[in-house]
Amino acid sequence: MFLRYAKQNQFRFQCSHLRFETGMDFTTDKLRSLVHKWQTLIEAHVDVKTTDNFTLRMFCIAFTKRRPNQVKRTTYAQSSQIRQMREIMVNQASSCDLKELVAKFIPKSIGKEIEKATTGIYPLQNVYIRKVKILKSPKFDLGKLMEVHGDYSEDVG
């Protein structure tokens, strides 16, 4: 019953202005529900500069998945996976501005790209961008802000 109610009442939020301290983070209960026995936890972080001069630190989390005919319980990850994850994170984030990057966080497209790229080495599951910190933002310019968000003049309250 709760799920039906949640699906009917979906909200869409739009961010009009970011302060220096704001970012994105997983809740603790979601993070702890992902961790299970017999799989390897892979964490990676990377600093990324977007095209509109925001410097972000992105933290990625992933878990190894058992292969189809695997006998042993544990699945061990290699350092080449972490390297490949970092490269994909940098390529995805540095090629767009902050507004496009936030739009990529919502449907988990960066996590899906990382899963596809690492299937050749070792299959991954539950790949998420767990946390995003804004390290450095450009100077506040009202003209540029209105240029980016000028088409949202009506109040949808």
TrEMBL record:
Protein name: 40S ribosomal protein S3a
Gene Ontology CC: ribonucleoprotein complex; ribosome
Pfam families recorded: Ribosomal_S3Ae (PF01015)
Keywords from the named record: Cytoplasm, Ribonucleoprotein, Ribosomal protein
Presence of keyword Cytoplasm: yes
GO annotation (BP), single: translation
GO molecular function, one term: structural constituent of ribosome
